[in-house]
Write a structure and sequence with these properties.
single chain, 67 residues, mainly beta, 3-stranded antiparallel sheet, 1 helix, 3 strands, 45% strand, elongated
Length: 67
């Protein structure tokens, strides 16, 4: 089961550009009642810092190695 506790985004005034996105999600490998259950948490924060033209999007090597 995965729960998303935070999911927020900010867009430009015209609504055409995603300026910022934040998400926090939690997943587990067993029931909440089991003390042996492992909880996994991921936090994602993205912010557009330059709008002057097209840019390159690339993933970190660690992400590519585990894909």
């Amino acid at each position: 089961m995965t729960n998303v506790s935070v999911a927020e985004y900010w867009v430009s005034i015209d609504g055409n550009v995603l300026l910022r996105y934040e998400m926090v999600a939690e997943s587990r490998d067993g029931p909440r009642s089991d003390p042996e259950t492992t909880i996994f948490t991921i936090e994602i924060r993205m912010e557009l810092i330059d709008t002057t033209g097209p840019g390159k999007v690339s993933l970190p090597d660690a992400c590519l190695e585990n894909a």
